[in-house]
Amino acid sequence: MDDTSRARRRRPRRALLASAAGGAALGGVLVTLPWGAQAPPAPTPQERALAAVTSGVPAALPDLKALAADRERHLRAHPRDARAWAELGAARVELGLRLADPRYWPRAEQALRASLKVRKDNVPALRAMAVLSNARRDHPGARAWGEAARKLEPERWTTYPPLIEASAGLGDDEETGRLLEKLVALRSGPAVMARAAAVYRDRGWREDAAAKLADAASAAGEPAERAAYLERAGQLAWERGDREDALRHFREAMRTDPGRRAARAGQGRVLAALGRTTEALGAYRTALAGHPRPEYALELGELYESLGRRSAAGAQYALLRERVRLAAAHGADEELVLGRFEADHGDPQAAVRRLRAEWERQPSTEVADALGWALHRAGEHEEALPFAVRATEGTKGGGVRSALFAYHRGAVERSLGRYGAARRHLTEALRINPWFSPLHAPRAKEALARLGEPSVQAGPRSS
Predict the structure, then answer these.
(1) For the chain, which residues score pLDDT lower than 50?
(2) What CATH class is the domain 45-146+158-187?
(3) Looking at residue 453, what is its pLDDT?
(4) 323-358 as b/e, with b when 16 or more CB fall inside 10 Å?
(5) What is the pLDDT of residue 41?
(6) Looking at domain 194-276, which of 1.25.40.10, 3.90.550.10, 3.40.50.150, 3.40.50.11930 is its CATH number?
(7) What pLDDT is attached to residue 455?
(8) What 8-state DSSP symbol labels residue 309?
């Protein structure tokens, strides 16, 4: 069956789905059907997943698997169906993200390139390639694919979220703002609210970001989508040090979608900060079992290290290295997390080399912070300072209010004898989130105590 026949066959059901979605958007208005009329059939798992991936919103894991299996079956009989190849590729990208499994990336790319081989001007495939590139942390590639899609259809709103993510990953704050303005002009709804919240968070507008995420979660259509926004709201609450609010959001996300393992890792952070260590360790282990991101292995390793359990910490650090190697073997870039690990737990000089290359390729706020910290750990404090400033000064692009970034800057300034500035930034780190790290938060408190109160005789280098 060709693309046109399939489109005709599916149009009635898609129209019904659109009608159902429109009714749901009325916020609970009772819709009565004519006497004897049947309600439209509930969407299949494949249709739910397809509606999600083509709109750039999270989908349930079982639905994604059903969509991928359905498209694989169809393509065995219809290998020239460009749309089906694009849908299969998009489903594989989302599966890789949900499972933190980079082995999906080459298979997703294969499907998307097959789609583009059949039809070059295939905007859904180009957009999915941009999403895939972002998933691999290849933000220059994501920008190139996204711009190719935008050139063909500049008014298609789904192209803009991956472009915004790519621009943020490249540290291009002005372009990120312009893209968001265009997206908001083209579309409203929960997916756009969530994307706006991410930009607001990076600018340090935490209240605006929290409000957008609350609205997105309330307006979300499917449980998987709502859970994703709740998890992000929990992360935002955690970043501002609101442990109880963060825990509430993470728990609600898990209740809404038990497959949301990122929320389980969030619970681990908060429970550790609350002193509920046994529960925190269990939450991290559960998160890693279903979503083995190297960041989570680093967090759990540092929690073990803070408890004096060095052997257990070493096992997590070995897992981190294994996951980074697996990612690299499948075309993903995990140099940022590996550089952060090496700076604190391995070879700081190696961290500097890795992060310099990363900075040249995609100079984001996160890379600026990591490179500055690696330089500091390697003893290059003067060179470290501009990067620490870049990560923390809103005028230089580092608008995000991060306790870890502020701590890093304070530690660099202390090493340079800039005691007034160091005191300010260490205090800021602990004001933002006194529990930001089981290893570094105690060190920030200790460094601040050693600095003591500001001296009235302080010289100019203390300011």
Answers:
(1) 1-33, 458-463
(2) mainly alpha
(3) 78
(4) bbebbeebbbbbbbbbbbbbbbbbebbebbbbbeeb
(5) 82
(6) 1.25.40.10
(7) 63
(8) -
Q: Which of 426, 419, 429 is nearest to 455 (CA)?
A: 419
Q: Is the pTM here over 0.85, yes or no?
A: yes
CATH 1.25.40.10 positions along the chain are 194-276
Give me the pLDDT at residue 246, please: 98
With the C-alpha atoms ordered 41, 42, 45, 49, is the resulting torsion angle positive or negative? positive
pLDDT value of position 352: 98
CA–CA distance, 92 with 87 (Å, rounded to integer): 9
Q: Which of left, alpha, beta for 119 (phi over 0: left; psi -120 to 50: alpha)?
A: beta
pLDDT of 24: 36
In a 13 Å sphere around the CA of 68, the CA atoms on its Cβ side amount to 20
Concatenated DSSP letters of 356-400: HHHHHH---HHHHHHHHHHHHHTT-HHHHHHHHHHHH-GGGT--S
pLDDT given at position 26:
33
